[in-house]
Amino acid sequence: MIKPLDIEKLNRAAPYRVEETDDVGFYQFQTDEGVLYSVGFLEDFALSSSDSFQLIVANLNNRRSHRDAKVRKTVIAIVDEFFHCNNTTLLYLCETGDDKQRLRSRLFEYWFSTYERKEFFTMISSSIIEKGGIINFATIILRNDNPHLSAITQEFIETIQLLNQKPA
To answer: Domain extents for the chain?
Structure first.
């Protein structure tokens, strides 16, 4: 079960005002350009060795979003508060519906690379090639003080290898 985030603390760190939604584990904010983002955490059962949550970042009103450093800082503030409240596994899977999954993966990796506390975390990104050549991207993030860090990262690596094996 996810522990709720401290909204007051989160809003002291985030440049955009973050609000809770009616859906447990989901938060939203609106940019200066009127883009409405939802950031949420869904329980995920992909890894059996730990409690894990999938990070969901969605543009709710499908408005074009230009490079906005405040979006990056707000999403990172939400993720940071998530890890402050929960020492668990976070998975980020890039949506494939519009062929922009590689771009999303690179953008998320860039966002995390600018995070000033990244040395306290382990982040592993990988790709999964499906039938038909569609490439999906998956990232796992854990706090370095997670007591199951080794087992979880090993399971993630083995799962990616298994998913990438072509059937004979």
So the answer is: 7-163
What lies within 8 Å, CB to CB, of 168 at 6+ separation is none
Q: Model-level pTM?
A: 0.86
Q: Which two tokens stand for residue 36?
A: 């409405």
Give me 136's structure tokens. Answer: 């999906």
Question: DSSP string covering 141-164, please?
Answer: EEETT-TTHHHHHHHHHHHHHHHH
The pair phi, psi for residue 9, each rounded to 5°, is -65, -45
Distance CA 60, CA 75 (A): 15
Q: Which tokens in the block code for residue 164?
A: 């990438």
Tell me: the pLDDT tens digits for 105-157? Answer: 677 777 777 777 889 999 998 888 777 777 788 889 999 999 999 999 999 99
Q: Indicate the CATH number of 7-163 among 1.25.40, 1.20.1740, 3.40.630, 2.20.28.
A: 3.40.630
